[in-house]
Write a structure and sequence with these properties.
By secondary structure, this protein is of the alpha/beta class. About 30% of the residues lie in helices and about 30% in strands. It is built from five helices and twelve strands. Helix 1 (about 10-30) packs across helix 5. The termini are far apart.
């Protein structure tokens, strides 16, 4: 039975959106567990800082850790209708160089062109390492952003943001539960990973549909 201290780290937005509700359920199920949750956009040293579990996205390359895929997330490139009315709609990836790009914590935007991954380095006069700030700038008609679906989903559905270059959208990024190999049999980690696999896909599911694929 899970018991004792369980230390977890996750990025701020993903943690607020999807992780915290699951952890609250976990705490209710297992009252002998004490949770210590660090929501931060820095990449924590799991072993050096004594974390039991991290939630991370993208590719994993460190052999010291075990990664269990628990969900996926989708990236959207989008802008407000007012910005597009003023500046036009980009028809290709390279058209972005003629637009105001809102730069977040990632300095690279990801696309797929002719079946191959394309990495674009956006340029713009507005940058912030906080996704909510980038979203607010896009809603204020300041430019084009690329953000995970949980930032923009409701605004796309409401027509406040318009998806762009959908035919060039990258594959969904994996979301991983990552933990040091020495802890892979911990009841705390094992039960939490099982709950994450059960609950997180539904929280991350995106009802916004993309346009059919076509040449970018």
């Amino acid at each position: 039975t899970p018991h004792g201290l369980l230390r977890i780290t996750c990025s701020v937005a993903l943690g607020e959106y999807a992780l915290i509700p699951i952890l609250n359920d976990f705490a209710a199920r297992y009252p002998e567990v004490r949770l210590s949750i660090d929501l931060s956009n820095r990449i924590a040293d799991l072993i050096g800082e004594g974390y039991d579990l991290a939630i991370r996205t993208g590719n994993l390359a460190d052999s010291r850790f075990i990664g269990t895929r628990i969900a996926s997330r989708r990236l959207f490139t989008c802008a407000s209708p007012a910005y597009l009315h003023k500046s036009g709609v980009p028809g290709s990836i390279m058209d972005l160089k003629h637009h105001d790009c809102l730069i977040g914590s990632s300095t690279s935007w990801h696309f797929v062109d002719a079946g191959k991954e394309q990495v674009y380095t956006p340029r713009g006069r507005w940058a912030c390492n906080n996704g909510h700030a980038v979203l607010n700038a896009a809603l204020a008609d300041l430019g084009i952003c690329q953000l995970p679906d949980y930032y923009v989903r409701t605004h796309v559905e409401a027509g406040e943001l318009v998806p762009l270059l959908e035919e060039c959208a990258p594959p969904d990024e994996p979301v991983w539960a990552v933990y040091p190999q020495r802890r892979h049999l911990s009841p705390n980690v094992r039960h939490l990973v099982d709950l994450l696999k059960e609950r997180m896909p539904a929280l991350m599911a995106n009802p916004v549909t993309r346009s059919p694929d076509k040449a970018c």
